[in-house]
Design goal:
18 helices; mainly alpha; about 0% strand; about 400 residues; globular; Growth Hormone, Chain: A
Length: about 400
Amino acid sequence: MGIFRRDDEMKASAGRRGIPAGVWALGFVSMLMDISSEMIHALLPVYMVAVLGTSMLTVGIIEGIAEATAAITRIFSGALSDRLGRRKFLAALGYGLAAFTKPIFPLAPSIGWLVAARFIDRVGKGIRGAPRDALVADIAPPELRGASFGLRQSLDTVGAFIGPLLAIGLMWLTADHFRTVFWIAVIPAFLSLAVILFAVKEPERPQELRRVRMPLRREELRRLGAGYWRVVAVAAVFTLARFSEAFLILKAQSIGLPLALVPVVLVLMSLAYSLSAYPAGVLSDRMDRTAILICGLGLLILADLVLAFAGGLVGLGIGVVLWGLHMGLSQGILATLVADTAPAELRGTAFGMFNLVTGFALLAASVIAGGLWDLAGPRGTFLTGAAFATLTVAGLATLRHRRGSR
């Protein structure tokens, strides 16, 4: 028996229908935008440190603030999508803002401009995030919800390893010219916007759904239910156990990986993530999702331990692959649990609140990681991550045992 509420029909009818075309389209939208974003983000930490001379702590703060900005924006866009009863417009607005922000990266003359660009880009991510995830939940049949979120995560992550591969090739072709790569990254961002505008069809809102006027009122938040808030609590502690993938790139740089090959770290991580997210989602439609989360945490502990002591490329590669597998066994599952436990008319608010809490947890995790890196180096950073993950496994296993014994 799992910790979180499950609908009986999910297991009974899993696999009877195919994943809807709308979920596929949203997956391709995410993939194209991720190609654009990762072409930039795979190089950005090194660009800030090696070219602009920023500290590791500054990188951690910038990465944490960027993600927290997205999280804060999501709560309002998710709630607005519940109030309007429509989600596609807000999702398209977010993708459009991110696309039109991409040219700032090659034009930025200083760290201040890069911070501003990251901030605006993350606002776009925040606007689209909760409405898009709620739209996936609206389109997907309940018995294929895990597979649908897993598919979206897999396609999203395909973009996350194509982007760094393109960055590697372009850095080689341009003799490490960062700005040229940043300019080319603008193209897939605008293709992503075109796909969501013309290929994604929003389903009609069911007539029986209750209309929500003020989604963020205390009464409405209570309607989300205890099961939903347990998901949020687990996700927050889970997020404290990990930090921005920027530190994987910096680990690669610290062991002497050539500048042009540093993005291969994100390629390996994203490949492992992409290959595991969809199977994990399919499996979660047939078994306890909590058990899969615990396996994901176990992989995170192994990844942290390997990365803490890795002094060569083999150890780095193993640690990065384990990190990607832990993402595949956790991120789509957590999103599915939100959709499982939240009322349909409050899904936008539920995803927004979920991302608000986990965004602040990521801010804390990234700042702590940056500070530890400056004080104790890579080993202290990754060992601390392993300690947080171990505590999370213990808490989640205890809660699962208590619920199962009732």
